[in-house]
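Posting this for the archive.
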Amino acid sequence: MSGAVVNCTETGEDNLSAKSSGVSPIGLGLYIQRIAGWICLIPLSILIIALLRLRGRHRILRHAEIRRLFKEYTLTQEPLIICANHLTLIDSVIILWALASTYTYVCHYRLFCWNLPAVENTKKRISWRVITYLSKCILIDRLGDAQHTNFRLGQICSLLRNRDLFLLFPEGTRSRDGRINPQSVTYGIGKILQQVPECRVVCVYLRGH
C-alpha cells in the first residue's frame, strides 16, 4: 500500500491523571499502563513511523487536512470514540499516525487513542505484547464469556469518562474487500453510548492504493 486515504466525519492543559491528587478512576493497572506508554511514546513513535515510511512506503493523502479536522473534533474535553473500518493488522497504527503528530500526542496524551485488539493477534510474540501494552491497548478475547466482555466494556466507559479517546472497529474483524459489512457490526458501541451518553462518535474510513 503506497498511500492511504483516511476520511473523518463526526456523528466531543491535559494531565496524565483525571485528578490532581491520587490515582485516576480508571484503575491502577490502566493508570500505570498509561504512564508507561507516555514515557515510551517518543522512541516508539519514531521507530514505528520510520518503519511505515521507509519499509512499508506508506503515505497519508491529505495528511494536513485530516489533522486539522481531528484538531477541530477534539477542541473540547468531551468523551470521543473513533469508529473505523478494518482492513489490516496495522490499521490502528496508521490511523493514529494520520490523526496527529507525535508532538501533539506527547503534549496531549489523552488524544492518543486507546484501542481493543484481539488477544490472539498479540500472543505469538513477546515484542507484540510489549508494543501493544505501551500503545494504550486493552486486549480482548473474542472467545471470552459475557463476564469478560462486560469487564472490558466497563474499562472502556471508565476511560471515556476520564476524557480519553477510544478507537474501535465495530465490525470486529478485517474486511476482505474493503467494504463495510453491516451484518457483522456488533452492539458494543451502542452499549457504550448508553453508559456514556455525552460521548461523541467520529467515523473514519480507511482505504489504500
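The first helix runs from residue 28 to 39. DSSP finds eight helices and five strands in the chain.
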